[in-house]
Write a structure and sequence with these properties.
single chain; 403 residues; alpha+beta; 2 domains; four-stranded antiparallel sheet; two-stranded parallel sheet; elongated; binds cobalamin; binds iron/sulfur cluster
């Protein structure tokens, strides 16, 4: 072999071995990051190259144009970032998507017939997951940046990131027909979060959809909020109505809400993939005993201070006492149980219009027409708020006041 060629061959081999070494470094770096995620308390992790994230501008625009977001105007802001993770932080080269298992043995569906109990959805029965996951993200991110000298930004829920499609692309699971992420390992019960970093990694393969011909989540939805497979009209969803919706809950949904007082788990709980769900080992996600099967009575006399104290580390605190009691009163009305009459009567004098309105509605659901008219005679003339007045009038289809 001529000398020049042999040197060329040597250089090629050494360049190739450097590339291979870099490749091995990247693979081992990626593996060690994913492995470390477990030590920091995450159950499942995967990496996606930012270039391979999807731009979901069309899907998000359609959702917003159809007004499926209801009062959640914040979904309309920063749309360009929300629909395209590449725009959120220009320096980002990869995203680590993390899942936290919050499954516990209880099943919300079993509570639906216990009319004097309030159903708090599983995710809200323990410590506020934002607090718990943020703490873990912070220490995991510090470990990554200390070990690999990179820049990092982490998010859980509150940033303009669409976490479900990101998690699907990263291979954590697939968006089921109810739109939430379903995992073969954990079923429906994963919280999602993400870490953006400026190291370039190869993506893990995207998850395949395993819904097949199943329609259980669509069929069970009490308000038909899943308007087509993979599309939800949030305005109709009980989770939205009881958590995000700040004003009076439209009459059309009050009976369907049943005894769900905070969120809804029905479409998640019915999914056949839950048979693979494992019980969480994270103490932060172990439900508080008094929130698993709480009686409606235990909430009816909460004032603002008591409410804040009771839910001090819970995500329920976010909706405030008035919205919470509004929800409880809907469940009370749906119980048709006369044992609540003394509590309802007290709430007819509450300082919150939201509460007084639902106290009137609950009364109407429980009393017969004659007894309701007796109460109306006492309270209607004292009432100054138009919406509460209408709630009294609506009971007997009288013409409503509009000015
Ligand atoms: C807004 C919001 C809500 C709203 C709207 C729900 C929704 N589906 O968008 C309301 C208040 C109703 C809600 C309820 C709940 N939420 Co929520 N919510 C969010 C939030 C903040 C944003 C979601 C969003 O971007 N929505 C906008 C719409 C446009 O997005 P999308 O549903 O993904 O839309 C997709 C489909 O339309 C799809 N699509 C359209 N056509 C087609 C066709 C095919 C074939 C396919 C595959 C897809 C597809 O493309 C779109 C983009 O992916 C996320 C956190 C986050 N930052 O991502 C949490 C989040 C989605 N919520 C969560 C949870 C736990 C819940 C509840 C279970 C809580 C409860 N128990 O009450 C319920 C579930 C209700 C339900 N069935 O979705 C978790 C879900 C975890 C998971 N495993 O998926 C998240 C990720 C929070 C978190 N950090 O863990 N939520
Ligand atoms: S959370 Fe409840 S109301 Fe909302 S889509 Fe699922 S089943 Fe329907
Ligand atoms: S219930 Fe059926 S359709 Fe719905 S997410 Fe689960 S597998 Fe898919």
């Amino acid at each position: 072999m001529p000398k020049r060629n042999s040197e060329y061959a040597k250089r090629t081999v050494s360049r190739r071995s450097q590339e291979e070494k870099n490749q091995i470094d990247f693979v081992s770096k990626k593996n060690s990051i994913l492995k470390a995620s477990k030590k920091f308390g995450f159950d499942i992790a995967s990496i996606i190259n930012i270039k391979e994230t999807k731009n979901l501008e069309v899907e998000l625009r359609q959702f917003l144009e159809k007004k499926h977001h209801g009062e959640m105007e914040w979904l309309n802001r920063k749309k360009e970032f929300r629909s395209d993770p590449k725009k959120l932080w220009k320096e980002a080269k990869s995203v680590i998507v993390l899942g936290s298992n919050y499954h516990f043995e209880t099943n919300s569906l079993d509570l639906l017939n216990k009319k004097n109990k309030g159903i708090i959805s599983v995710y809200a029965r323990s410590k506020d997951y934002h607090l718990s996951i943020k703490k873990k993200l912070k220490s995991f991110s510090k470990w990554i940046s200390d070990n690999y000298q990179c820049q990092i930004k982490f998010f859980v829920d509150t940033a303009p990131v669409m976490e479900k499609p990101l998690a699907m692309r990263a291979g954590i699971g697939w968006q089921g027909k109810h739109t939430n992420l379903v995992s073969k390992e954990y079923g429906s019960w994963l919280f999602l979060s993400s870490i953006f970093l400026d190291i370039e990694f190869n993506s893990n393969p995207e998850s395949k959809n395993h819904c097949g011909s199943c329609t259980k989540c669509i069929d069970i939805c009490p308000t038909n909020a899943i308007v087509e497979p993979y599309k939800i009209d949030a305005k109709k969803c009980i989770s939205y109505l009881t958590i995000e919706h700040k004003s009076h809950i439209p009459k059309a949904y009050r009976n369907q809400i049943g005894n769900r007082i905070y969120g809804c788990d029905d479409c998640l709980a019915v999914c056949p993939w839950n048979k693979y769900a494992k019980k969480t080992s994270d103490i932060d996600f172990i439900p508080k005993k008094n929130l698993i099967e709480p009686t409606l009575k235990s909430f009816l006399s909460l004032d603002d201070t008591m409410f804040r104290k009771k839910f001090s580390r819970s995500s329920i605190k976010r909706i405030g006492r008035n919205r919470f009691i509004r929800n409880v009163l809907i469940a009370v009305g749906n119980s048709k149980n006369k044992n609540y009459l003394s509590e309802i009567t007290l709430l007819l004098n509450d300082s919150s219009d939201l509460v007084r309105s639902m106290a009137v509605w609950a009364l109407k659901e429980i009393l017969n027409k004659k007894d309701f008219e007796i109460q109306k005679k006492i309270y209607y003339k004292k009432e100054r708020n138009l919406e509460v007045k209408n709630e009294w009038l609506d009971s007997d289809n009288q013409i409503q006041i509009t000015h």
